[in-house]
Write a structure and sequence with these properties.
It is a single chain. The model has no long low-confidence stretch (mean pLDDT 92). The chain is α+β, with helices and mostly antiparallel strands. It has 2 domains: 245 residues, Bira Bifunctional Protein, Domain 2 (BirA Bifunctional Protein, domain 2); 91 residues, Anticodon-binding domain (Rossmann fold), CATH 3.40.50.800. Helix 12 links the parallel strand 12 and strand 13.
Length: 419
């Protein structure tokens, strides 16, 4: 068959085993989030581009290099969402959710878009599952968000998780630290990469996020040494809550995350991968984001994990996703038998008995082969003669024994056999 078209570079189809992993993560995450009082939300894939340039930051790599932004036929400047938080805060403001009982707690499982070099577990269209708590804040909320994500990953079977954590302080702390950092970077400018020389002027904190300027970062001043007493106390409380919950963490004084809206506590989740540590995602506080998007200063915190990265880890660790196995397979021979089997399939479905079929296949040998591969308990066979007499041949797939039953009795009898 001619393959004239392929999916765009960095974008991938999700089906088969990969889809099963996605559904497993979605099920565990949704159940866990609901247990903690979060409600689901779906926001548009496309937003006004300013939602991200104002919220995420004009001088971040996401906005300058990675965001898919374009003009619509009507002349609106829009963008495919590169992350979830800014759009959810926009929805919080637009729908007056600040007038409701606070906090508002949302969870999502959705695709996002960034133009970057595709690599293992990283795509240009990628999926994330995330949590946002808006309207009330404090160290305990930070700790609970971390705990929910930690518990989700643990329930999925991922071991040896580690959380790197830091505090960026409030806006004033950050401004004061940027002055100190700029002074240091000017002395080290000859050792900076081209991107960081540009970042040094516009957004010096991004230098601490650079993977190429390691030596410069090693001797750089640490933001945690420049935060105010209140921010220091809040951060201490977050760590105490994590210790109470026995959640492992490492202090990383250079962790700043790649988005400008973060303040105070920030963190990233890591787990051992085939080629060293694999970053799964992270999060932090963003108390000033609502104000950046036209609202008022609002306490908020959130986190997001990469679905593809999580799947990659699960596969590397040999974690299998068990699907519900069909108990019954319905095989047919003749058009009349197909009609009878269609109705019989619906009766088993309504009785909540897992059932499978291959109605598009006419060969009994082929259908029986499929039933064997599925390892069903019983195969029901209806040929032309059985269809005319409203009867079914029931074959025990383990013993090979067969019996004939009325189509009216077969569901009830199979229920008894399965018990």
């Amino acid at each position: 068959m001619s393959k004239s078209f392929q999916s765009p570079s960095g974008m991938h189809d999700v089906f088969g085993e990969q889809y099963d992993y996605f559904e497993k993560i979605r099920e565990v995450f949704s159940r866990m989030a609901t247990t903690y009082g979060f409600e689901g939300i779906e926001i548009p894939i496309m937003e006004n581009a300013k939602v991200f340039s104002r919220g995420v930051g004009e001088h971040t790599d996401i906005i300058e290099k990675e965001m898919y932004a374009f003009k619509t036929k009507g002349g609106d400047q829009v963008a495919l969402r590169p992350e979830g938080t800014a759009g959810i805060v926009r929805a919080y403001i637009e729908h007056n959710l600040y007038t409701k009982s606070q906090p508002i707690k949302f969870f999502y499982f959705a695709p996002f878009f960034r133009y970057e070099r595709p690599q293992a577990g990283r795509y240009r269209q990628f999926w994330q599952f995330g949590l946002e708590t808006i309207g009330k804040g404090g160290p305990v909320v930070d700790a609970q968000i971390i705990a929910v994500m930690y518990n989700v990953l643990r329930e999925l079977g991922i071991k040896d998780l580690m959380i790197e954590i830091n505090s960026m302080g409030e806006s004033k702390c950050r401004e004061d630290f940027e002055k100190v950092l700029k002074k240091y970077l000017r002395k080290e400018s000859s050792s900076l990469c081209a991107d960081c020389k540009r970042r040094m002027k516009k957004n010096p904190l991004r230098v601490l996020d650079c993977k190429r300027c390691i030596k410069v970062k090693e001797s750089a001043p640490q933001i945690v040494d420049h935060i105010c007493p209140k921010c220091r106390e809040d951060f201490k409380k977050v760590l105490e809550y994590l210790e109470e919950l026995k959640i492992p963490y490492d202090l990383n004084s250079f962790l700043v995350r790649g988005l400008d809206y973060y303040t105070n506590t920030v963190y990233e989740f890591f787990a051992p991968g085939e080629e060293g540590r694999l970053a799964l995602g992270g999060g932090g506080r963003y108390d000033g984001l609502a104000k950046l998007l036209g609202g008022e200063e609002t306490p908020a915190t959130g986190a997001a994990m990469g679905v593809e990265r999580t799947v990659l880890l699960m596969k590397n660790d040999g974690i299998k996703v068990e699907k519900e196995k069909p108990k019954i397979f319905i095989a047919q021979l003749s058009d009349l038998a197909k009609r009878k089997c269609l109705k019989l399939f619906e009766e088993f479905r309504e009785a909540k008995i897992p059932v499978s079929e291959s109605f598009g296949q006419d060969s009994l040998k082929g259908q029986m082969s499929k039933a064997n591969k599925m390892k069903v308990d019983y195969t029901l066979i209806i040929g032309e003669e059985e269809a005319a007499e409203d009867r079914v041949i029931v074959r025990d797939m383990e013993s090979g024994q067969q019996e004939s039953l009325s189509t009216k009795e077969v569901v009830k009898e199979i229920k008894k056999k399965l018990k």
